[in-house]
Amino acid sequence: MDPSRALSAPHKPLVHTRSGFFAGETELRRPSLALRCRLTGTPTVWAPGTRRSAAIVAKRKAKKRIEGVSEEMNSIASQNLDLAPARRRVRSAFVEVQNRLDHVLFKSAPSGIRMEEWFEMNSKGLEIFCKAWLPRKGVRLKGIVCFCHGYGDTCTFFFEGIAKIIAASGYGVYSIDHPGFGLSEGLHGYIPSFDELVDNFIERFQVIKERSEASGVPHFLLGQSMGGAVAIKVHLKRPSDWDGIILVAPMCKIAENVKPPPAVLKALAFLSNVLPKAKLFPETDLADLAFRDPRKKKMLVDMEGILWTMPDFTVLHEMAVYNVIAYSDRMRLRTGMELLKATDDIERQIEMVSSPLLVLHGAADKVTDPAVSKFLYEKASSKDKTLKLYPEGYHCILEGEPDERISIVFDDIVSWLDSRCIH
User: Fold this and answer.
1) In what residue span(s) does the Serine aminopeptidase S33 domain sit (predicted)?
2) Looking at residue 358, which CATH number applies to its domain?
3) What residues have CB less than 8 Å from 234, skipping those under 6 apart?
4) Which of 16, 24, 34, 83 has its CB surrounded by the most CB atoms within 10 Å?
5) For the chain, how many structural domains are there in total?
6) pTM of the entire structure?
7) Does some domain include residue 42?
8) Would you say residue 267 lies in a domain?
9) Within a domain: residue 116?
10) How would DSSP label each residue in 25-86?
11) 99-147 per-position pLDDT tens digit
12) Which of helix, strand or coil describes residue 337?
C-alpha cells in the first residue's frame, strides 16, 4: 500500500493472548515483560482470566496549544498530519505567523532574496516539494548549495532563514522535503527505505542541476543531522557530482555504548516487518540537549529521540511549535530500523568519502556525539577536509546557540564555500 495512505495498524489491531500477540492473522511470540515495556514506553496491562486482552501500545501525542494565536489557528494546527494535503493546508495557514517570529533566523533574514516553490513527481509517483533561494537579481552566482534536512523536519521553517543567509552571500540554495516529511507526499514520519530516500534526493537534484543558473558553477551538499547521513550516502553513490560537502552535527555512526542490546534490536527488526508503520520505537526525552542559549532553551517545549540517545531527532521548542508540520510523534518502527541500517552502512564505507569536506559540530552536543564527527574526519579519504568543534556548543548550532555563535558558524560556512569557488 502507498505509504501516503492510512496506517495499517488500525486495520490490523495488536491483540495480546497468553502465548503471544496477533497483528491481523499473524501470531507473534510474546516478548518478556521487560522488553514489552521498553518497546512501548509504558507497562502493558493484562486482563486476568481472558483469552485475549486488547492493549494500547502507542498513543498519538496530544499537540500542545500554541500561545498567541487564535482558537481557529490552534484547531488548524491540531489536525491529523499523516497525509500531505493536510500538512500543506496547515503550513499555508501559518506562513505569516512564522515570518514574524522573534528569532535571528527570521528577524534578521536578508531581504531581496528570490524564492521559488514547486512540486515534482518522483519515480515512485509521489509529489515532492522543492524550493529555491537565489541572490538579488544581477548578483553573479558563485555556486549552488543543495540541502538535506534532518529527521521529522522540513525545509520551510528554520532553513528558510539559513537559506536566505547563504543565498545573500552569492549562492543558489535548493532543498526538498523528503518523502513523508514536510510538504512532500508520503505517510508522515515514515521511511520505508533509507536508500530510496537517498535515491529520491539524487533524482530531484539531477533535475535541479539542469537549471540554467546551476550550469558552470560548483555544486555543494549541505546536510544536517540525519540529513548529514543522506548527504554522505548521496556522495558515495555519485562522488563525481559534487565539489564539496558540509555536514552539521551529522548522523553517521552510532556509538556502541548507546546502541540497544542485540536482543532488543532483533525484536525491533522483527516487529518492523510486521508493523512497519506503527509508532512503537523506544524514545528518550532529550529536551535540554539541543539548545544552549538560555533564552532559546527557555522556549524549549518538547524533543523526541529514539534508542536512549540515538541521534537527531525531532527538535521542537516553544518557537518551534510554530513549525506546525514537523513530525513530533513516536518514531515508526521501519523508520527507526532504516536509520540504524543507514548508519551501519555509512560506517562501513566511511573511508570512501573523498570529497572536500567541512564538518561542524558543537563540542558539548549530547544528541549526536562530536566523537562521531572526529571519527568521520579521521577516516574519510578526502585530502581537503576540515573539522570545526565549537566550545560548549550543543546540537543545534545553526538554530539554538547564542546569536553571536550562530553568526560565527555561518561565517565559517560561507568562507569555506568562497575559498572553493572560482570567482
Assistant:
1) 142-402
2) 3.40.50.1820
3) 148, 198, 201, 202, 205, 221, 242
4) 16
5) 1
6) 0.80
7) no
8) yes
9) yes
10) TEEEEPPPHHHHHHHHSSPPP--TT-SEEE-----PPPPPP-TTS-HHHHHHHTS--SSHHH
11) 888 889 998 889 999 999 999 999 999 999 999 999 999 999 999 999 9
12) helix
